[in-house]
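Re: duplicated header lines in exported C-alpha cells

Our pipeline writes sequence and C-alpha cells for each protein into one text file. With two proteins the header for the second block appears twice in some exports. Here is an export where it did not happen, for reference. First protein block:
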Amino acid sequence: MRRPIQQSVTLKAAPRKLFDTFLDSKKHTALTGAPAKIGKKAGAVFSAFGGQLSGRTLLVVPGRLIVQSWRSTGWETSDPDSILILEFSKTKGGGRIDLVHVGVPQHDRRGVSNGWKHYYWGAWQRRLAAGQVR
C-alpha cells in the first residue's frame, strides 16, 4: 500500500490569495517559474512545469479546497493517476495549506514530496517575502 504524502505550510498571505494563485495559470506560472495551464472549475484539465505534471481538477470549493487527479511524465504508463487534495484555511497572520497526496508511485515519492517543499512552499515563501505574490 502506498503511503500518502501529507504536508502543511503556513504562509503570510490570506488563504483566498493562495487558493487563487494556485488556480490561475499566470499566477501559478509566476509562482513556480515554469509554464502552467490550469482552469478554475471542476472538470478542467491542467498542466504544470511545461507539461511535466498534468491532470484534471475534480472538485473546487472556492477559496477552501482543490481536489485533482495528478500525474508526472516520469511515471510509468501503468502507474495510475494520484489524487491531490489541497485545503486552504485561515491562521493568525496568514493562511495555511494542508496537502494530502494519495497514490504517488513509490519510485517517485521522494521526488514529489521534495518537489512540493521546494517548488511550491519554498517558492511561495520567497515570493511573499519579496512582495511578488499579488
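Second protein block, exported in the same file:
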Amino acid sequence: MANGGTIFLDEIGEMSPALQVKLLRVLQERKFERVGGTKSIHVDIRIIAATNRNLTTAINNGTFREDLYYRLNVIPLKVPPLKRRKSDIPLLIDFFLKKARRRKRQKVKEFSTAATDAMLKYDWPGNVRELENIITRVSILCDNQTVGFHDLPEYLQQNSVLNKPVKEDLLTKGGTLSEAVRDFEKRLILEALEKSDGVKAKAAKLLNIKRTTLVEKIKKQNEADAACA
C-alpha cells in the first residue's frame, strides 16, 4: 500500500531482533514476500522511523542492529522533549481539543488561564502523548465549555501549586504573616518532594509529619492557589 509513497514506523527501538533482520532486507533489496507467499514484491518507499530510545546505547547493549541503524539514520531529526519547548503547549491544547470535538462531539472549547498555566508548569515526562491523553480525559469529564484548574488531574494541580514562585519581601509588598507562613511551608514541601523523588511517604518523613498531614497540606495549597488564580 505504501509503494511509491511513505511509511512511518513508530518506536523502532522496540522492534524484535528477528523483525530487524527482515526490515533490513527490505531496505537493502527493496522487496519482500507476503506471509505464506512465494513471489517477491518489489517496492519503492520512503521510510520515516521514530524512537524515544538512544539507539547508540541499544547497539552497545546488543538490542539493536548497527547495520539497520545506519540504514535508517540518513537524515536524523532530533525533536526536543515537550518540557524544553513549552511554547508549543497552548498550540497543542487547541489542536487536541479540536480533535476531541470532532471525534467525541465534546463541548469543551478552551482551557482557562489557570488551567493553561498549570499545563505550562508541568514537565510532561510522557511528552505529547501524555498531553493528548489529559486533554481527551478532561474534554470527556468536564461539563463546561472551559476547562478550569480543578478539572485537571490532581497531580497537575499539585505540581502547579508547588512550582508557583514564592513571594519575596512580603512585608514591603504588603504581605501578611499567614501568607509568609504558607509560602515558606510550600517551599519546604517542594524541597522535601524533590529530595524524595515525589514519593509522599518519604517526603513526609523528611518533614517529620504524617503522610496524611502532607497530603492535606498540599490540598490546602491547591485550594489557596485556585482562589488566587
